[in-house]
Specification:
Chain A is mainly α. Chain A has helices spanning 5-40, 50-64, 68-74, 76-83, 89-113, 117-125, 130-164, 171-181, 186-214. Chain B is of the alpha/beta class. Chain B has helices spanning 44-51, 74-81, 99-109, 114-127, 143-155, 173-189, 201-207, 225-230, 235-244, 283-290, 322-333, and strands at 2-13, 16-28, 33-37, 59-64, 67-68, 84-88, 161-165, 193-198, 210-215, 218-224, 258-259, 266-275, 295-306, 309-319, 338-346. Classes of the chains: A mainly alpha, B alpha/beta.
């Protein structure tokens, strides 16, 4: 592998990490509360509200059913409006966030469902408010599971960010396609794949370690 | 302290309406330990949840400490619930919090300052005997220890009432005993009113002052534990008691025909129930002395104690002439003992 490739690789890795990190942070800000809402408005839960639950559930399902590559193209007007351009690493963040919000919502909902109903009942019996039940019972009890689920979301984001490269988003996916595929340089292809594997392994390892540390069961 | 009137609870389920409680009236006095026993599905868990409004009755009235629970706003209800501690079959402790944090939880909810929490939790840890476990997580505790944490947590907000929902059903017999003893102690020392939900007659017998037997959403029978134990009226009550106090005939007579008239080679079996101080009176010895024509064989005997009152149950077999036996029965009838004539039964030839 020639030396001119290394700066390209490190730049691409930086772009991928930037896209994934910023998208994850922004998507979590909306996705985690969305997951809490999905769970708590369900029948028999503390903020039971069947119509609201149905509406947000349907919106989540609708967005999740669109393949990422189509979503990316479909929301180009929104991306232009928010970022001022539809091309570039920052522009790629918009579709990544839009796709990840409902994903995170469902993952968090699944985690919260695992909290035994008896714990919520006990807290209610002690006079806890719904806000206290969310912050002091549901979230702490589901934390290990939420960490695991969010790890899965980050790994999915790594994959989607590579796709974003296809519309000029930069990152490792972009590098692999432009250099590795279109310029017939298999060593670039192999290098990006290896970096992606290492990246995903590292994320999974960290996620597992964090989940284990927060688990007192 | 607690007054439930005409409580109805109907659940709307996709498969139709379920009438869980059908007009329950119940009054529980201050400082009492009141047991509610029933099979699973009888409605006892629903009933106890009507006291703190975890379940809102479809109709009826709930008064706790003079407060009309049905008419409270959400915020008032939350305040009222701090007066009612509750412990559960599966403990329902926060797995992510230490023993200390679990006990402090009700105080954290009401935003008690840290130094006051400390003053409150330390004696509770002492009371339930878990001083050395304060910084452990529930996963590191045994079932009995978890329930002790549950009890300490329920007491942290200084409640006047403690609701126990199958609190010992997941515990082994020894641990059950130690938890029941603990509940007895806090009932006495804190003059707490305790409501106990269980399907185990043993729990009622060891712990409660009064008992209500609930079956199919109605109270089948109620009274002091002693009354209900020694003189059960309802079939379901008899079944519950028979788990503890067998009603079967001794093995040598089991399965043989019972006749109300004397048959050759049979004994007249009597079930005798002694209650209170009379339980250790020499009634049988007197009967034998005064009726020399009657042979008396002791076939079964059990001396127990319910709420500190001695309670004896015996089965004896009498043989002799009919007039002599009648004389013996007349003698027993004049004594402070309950006599139930089972009938003439022949002894199994194999057992003889």
């Amino acid at each position: 592998m020639s030396a001119e490739i290394l700066p390209l690789l490190s730049k691409a890795l930086g772009e991928t990490v930037y896209m994934v990190a910023v998208s994850m942070a922004l998507a979590s800000i909306i996705g985690v509360p969305l997951g809490i809402l999905l769970h708590t408005t369900e029948r028999g839960q503390i903020l039971e509200n069947a119509p609201l639950n149905k509406i947000i559930g349907s919106v989540v399902n609708a967005i999740r059913s669109i393949p990422f590559i189509i979503l990316m193209v479909a929301i180009i007007p929104l991306t232009r409006f928010l970022v001022g351009s539809a091309i570039g690493t920052t522009a790629a963040i918009v579709p990544l966030v839009v796709a990840s919000i409902p994903f995170i919502g469902r993952q968090v909902e699944t985690s919260l469902k695992e909290v035994p109903a008896g714990l919520v009942e006990a807290a209610l019996a002690m006079g806890a408010t719904p806000a206290q039940i969310i912050s002091k019972v549901l979230l702490p009890e589901a934390l290990p599971s939420i960490v695991s689920q969010l790890t899965t979301v980050i790994i999915a984001l790594v994959g989607e960010s590579a796709m974003a490269g296809a519309i000029g988003g930069g990152g490792l996916g972009d590098l692999a396609i432009r250099y590795g595929y279109q310029r017939f340089r298999p060593e670039v292809m192999i290098a990006t794949v290896v970096i992606l594997i290492v990246l995903v392994q590292a994320v999974q390892f960290l996620g597992n370690a964090l989940a284990r540390r927060s688990n007192k069961r | 302290m607690i007054k439930l009137s005409h409580i109805e609870k109907i659940y709307d389920t996709p498969s139709g309406k379920i009438h869980a409680l059908k007009g329950i009236d119940l009054e529980i006095a201050r400082g009492e330990i009141y047991g509610i026993i029933g099979l699973s599905g009888a409605g006892k868990s629903t009933l106890v949840r009507c006291i703190n409004m975890l379940e809102r009755p479809t109709a009826g009235e709930v008064f706790v400490d003079g407060q009309d629970m049905m008419k409270l706003t959400e915020a008032e209800l939350r305040a009222a619930r701090k007066n009612i501690g509750m412990i559960f079959q599966h403990f329902n402790l926060l797995s992510s919090a230490t023993v200390y944090e679990n006990i402090a939880f009700p105080l954290t909810l009401s935003k008690t300052p840290r130094n006051q929490i400390d003053k409150k939790v330390a004696p509770l840890l002492e009371l339930v005997g878990l001083k050395d476990k304060a910084n452990q997580y529930p996963a590191q505790l045994s079932g009995g220890q978890k329930q002790r944490v549950g009890i300490a947590r329920a007491l942290a907000s200084d409640p006047k009432i403690l609701l126990c929902d199958e609190a010992t059903s997941a515990l082994d017999p020894q641990t059950t005993k130690s938890i029941l003893d603990l509940i007895k102690v806090i009932n006495k020392t804190l003059s707490l009113t305790v409501v106990v939900i269980t399907h185990e007659m043993q729990v009622i017998k060891e712990l409660c002052d009064k008992v209500a037997v609930i079956s199919d959403g109605v109270i089948a029978e109620r009274g002091s534990v002693l009354e209900v134990f020694t003189n059960p009226q309802h079939e379901i009550t008899k079944e519950f008691i028979s788990v503890l106090l067998s009603n079967q005939l001794p093995a040598a007579f089991r399965g043989n025909e019972i006749s109300q008239t004397k048959t050759e080679g049979s004994l007249l079996l009597l079930r005798l129930i002694f209650l209170g101080e009379r339980a250790d009176d020499p009634v049988l010895a007197q009967m034998i002395r005064k009726n020399p024509g009657v042979e008396c064989t002791m076939l079964f005997g059990n001396l127990d104690e319910i709420q500190g009152v001695p309670f004896g149950r015996f089965i004896v077999g009498l043989s002799g002439g009919e007039t002599e036996i009648q004389g013996a029965l007349n003698f027993l009838g004049g004594k402070d003992v309950r006599v139930e004539v089972i009938g003439y039964v022949r002894r199994n030839s194999a057992a003889a």
